[in-house]
Amino acid sequence: MTSNHNPFIRINESLSRRALLRGGVVAAALAALPSCDATAWTTPSGTASTATASPASRVTANVRVSRDQFSQHVGPSLAANPRQPGQLLVACQGSPFTPEFVLTYVSADGGATWQLGGRPPQPGSGPAGDDVTVASGGNGTGYVCAARSGHGSRLGPANPDANRAVYVWRTGDGGRTFSAPVTLVEGVYSDHPWVAAGQGGGSSGRHVYVAWGAGAAHTALEFTRSTDGGQTFATPRRILAEASAPSLVSAGPQVAAGPDGVVCVVCDWTTKQDASGDMTGQVTAVCSADGGDTFGAPVHLGAETATMALPGGVRPNSGPAVAISPRGDAIFVAFPVRKPGATHSDIVVTVSRDRGRSWTAPVTATPADGAIYFQPNLAADAAGRVAISAFALKDGRMDEVLLISRPGQLSFDPPLRVTTAPFDPLDRATATRGKYGIWWLGDWQGIASGDGVFHLVWNDTRTGKLDLFAATLHP
């Protein structure tokens, strides 16, 4: 997190990327979506669900992941172990304000059941648990990355970034235990870090990559790499220079890594507010073909609607998402777009088949159905399919949906409703007291491919608090 100031008032102060939903009633219309089987999820007092999909169903039941005393589970990230595809690791921020811990959850049966994972030990210099992401390398090691947000710095305005830092933890047992944290950067502005791991065999499977928003104007990207399985990291270096224009949102990135040294970092380089109240970001990709030794020139991929100003004051936020095919022959980037003032938004996808040097024109993945689609998350599988999970708004209710392309094509089937019941994103039972007066969903939700399926994890309010749920789709 970067600031608690209102981004629609303070133009020169960058904000952390937060999927903030603010007050009021959503005035969007969502056409009927194909639904998964309406298999019931267990109640808060029940035991872990073991439900699986029936043979006729493409989606398993919604399985509750988080069964603990915490009322807020924000920004879940998901990774599948390539050596044991049924082994899944989820990590999230355990509180929406002044985050002080990371929560993890593990599954050994492909998401049919979940247990509370280990708690990554806190750094001695102060608590950390902001902007949590996970990755699993080709060597089977799991990685958790999180930031210390900078809130609570005793130095205050004299040095508001003195308390910031980025850390990485390792796990060799699927998330039951974690190493001590490795410090990547501290004492300077660092926001929205993202971790990815090499997917090839041999030494490339031990590579770990992390990038974050940086710089005095908060529009630069810094990057570091480990070549020893996350035990040590190189000195961070800048791979994207600061923009000359001011930005409302920090350049918080996503990172993807494939085999043979392909690495891609995407972000909103600059974000401005238009007359309708929407914030439009310039989606930029910076790619490496040699495992992060060098990066090519940044490529502008298009303009995304980073924040949508909907009637009633609802402002869903998004950022660009990136995925690399398991063969490393394609890099995909997805982001939302909306015409100013429209009651519909789309998710578009672009692809590079030359390791990030050139990209296709964005292709629309969502139907023109009047829905508000936002917060896309990407995964690609060995069959050449691309999966996009996203939230969709309908009359003040929200669903998690999934779009899947045909193998080898950017042609998508109609969105499939994943949630067994829509939920209220403005449920007052989950209201917080610090983040603009209302809780928020986080910056992202989790998606991963593995063993011929797509796994999804998201947060919703059906339990009366912000809990995590999971489902598995069989294409």
From TrEMBL:
UniProt-listed InterPro entries: Sialidase_sf, TAT_signal
Gene3D superfamilies in UniProt: 2.120.10.10
Origin superkingdom: Bacteria
Species of provenance: Trebonia kvetii
Keywords, sorted A to Z: Signal
Signal keyword on record: yes
Protein name, entry field: Exo-alpha-sialidase
Signal peptide bounds: 1-40
